[in-house]
Amino acid sequence: MTVPIPLEGGGQPTLFERIGAQPLQALLWDFYARVCQDPELGPVFRDRLGPFPQAGWPLHLARVEGFWRSVTRGPGAYRGQPGQAHLNLGIQPHHFDRWLALWEETLPGYMGEAEALSLLSTARRMRPTLERFAVHGQAPDGPRRLETKNPETKNPETRRPEKGGQ
Questions:
Q1: pLDDT at res. 10
Q2: Region 38-51: what's the mean pLDDT?
Q3: CB-side exposure of 79: number of CA atoms within 13 Å?
Q4: What's the pLDDT band for 128 if we cut at 50, 70, 90?
Q5: Contact 35/99 with Cβ under 8 angstroms?
Q6: Three-state DSSP class for residue 148
Q7: What's the burial of 70, exposed, middle or buried (CB within 10 Å: 0-12/13-18/19+)?
Q8: Dist. CA 49–CA 94, nearest whole Å
């Protein structure tokens, strides 16, 4: 039976508080060490960041940690754009399959089952967006705004479509 994990409020600890800062950091270093040893993923990451754990890895892992702190409602000020960071990597959907498989294998060593499932579910939900950037080099389609002219000012203004298509 899966128990819902409250992210905040109600006096419940956040997901970040349940995982802890040190386990999260250790998880990420171990995970990306595995990624770099992987025959499919290693070349992609080494080409972009250099040899692990030197070169661009400390900065990359600091950014990734900031991202996961934010996602788990932990302290931090992540302001990155994950989609843009994955733009045109020259990878295919099977790379995402492998990344998720390694993520799933690594998580249980650093946290409880419920917390690991939550992080895995989050990664799975992010996949379509990141894949569109990385594989297809484009942002996903989303809600669009209509550009209209205000007849009184003759200046363009942005407004959302009204309900019912009117």
A1: 64
A2: 95
A3: 1
A4: very high
A5: yes
A6: strand
A7: middle
A8: 20
